[in-house]
Design brief:
7 helices, binds adenosine-5'-diphosphate, binds magnesium ion, alpha/beta, four-stranded antiparallel sheet, single chain, 256 residues
């Protein structure tokens, strides 16, 4: 008799993240535990930009921290390329809402930080950081300090710091929400263009946002997150938002 194959991790070759039945409860001293995520399931594959759209307080940042390996879930499974994730991995990088730059370090040094942690030699660090800074449109600002830059430029530094490690998966936690409308639009447009031209050294993006227009314009799949507790309640595909479909009349009608 042949037994059915065991349910061992056996992802298709392009599967990056698989989350199965994830739950997160925060302990509260004087009240019942706060259940922030319950029964979250999701899969992220190589090559896609996925949006995670949900209200403030619904647990989106919590879920991102879990995927980044910064927070072990209360229960449930998080698989990175088919293996249980048990801490940060080099293949995942994150961009934060509030940039999270070190004010006492130059742009160049802020960007090099991710590489230092990986033990990349100094000369190579310098070159990789310069490439990332150029790519994101900040060439010439290597020796500036964060306080000398505008919000949009600071978030470009945050992006360069994430891109410099050439992660397979880029996590972005409301990366444009601290920026004014025009600055956010410039940065979004630049990112969409770099992605379409395949110049970003990444394979996949998970973009957290509470801006539905942004999700529709940037993502080819949108996970709609419910609140109390957070879970993936709906999934929408936006076939025309994919860069290769940007000339589609349906997409042009939306953006022109
Ligand atoms: P979102 O990013 O969708 O706004 P968060 O994941 O930041 O949501 O927060 C979800 C809920 O969990 C909020 O009610 C928040 O106050 C609470 N929370 C977040 N982090 C912690 C923590 N470290 N300890 C306790 N409660 C937390
Ligand atoms: Mg958040």
């Amino acid at each position: 008799m042949t037994l059915p194959a065991a349910a061992s991790p056996d992802p298709t070759h392009d599967e990056l993240i698989r989350i199965v039945g994830c739950r997160q409860a925060y302990h509260k001293e004087s009240a019942a535990d706060l259940v922030v995520l319950d029964d979250v399931h999701l899969t992220l594959r190589s090559g896609e930009i996925v949006g995670l759209l949900g209200r403030s307080g619904s647990g989106k940042s919590t879920l991102l921290r879990i995927i980044a390996g910064l927070l072990p879930p209360t229960s449930g499974q998080v698989l990175w390329k088919g293996r249980e994730l048990d801490g940060p991995v080099p293949g995942i990088a994150m961009v934060f809402q509030s940039f999270a730059l070190f004010p006492w370090l130059t742009v160049q040094k802020n960007v090099e930080l991710g590489l230092e942690a990986k033990g990349v030699p100094a000369a190579e660090r310098e070159q990789l950081a310069e490439n990332a800074i150029d790519l994101i449109g900040l060439g010439g600002y290597e020796n500036a300090y964060p306080k000398e830059l505008s919000g949009g430029m600071r978030q470009r530094v945050g992006l360069a710091r994430a891109l410099v490690v050439h992660p397979d998966l880029l996590l972005m936690d409301e990366p444009f929400s601290a920026l004014d409308v025009l600055t956010a639009e410039n940065l979004r447009t630049d990112l969409i263009e770099l992605w379409a031209e395949r110049r970003l050294p990444i394979k996949s993006v998970l973009l957290v946002t509470h801006n539905i227009e942004e999700a529709v314009l940037m993502c080819d799949r949108i996970l709609v997150f419910s609140s109390n507790p957070g879970r993936v309640a709906h999934e929408l595909s936006v076939p025309f938002a994919h860069p290769r479909n940007r000339e589609d009349p349906a997409f042009r009608q939306l953006v022109d």
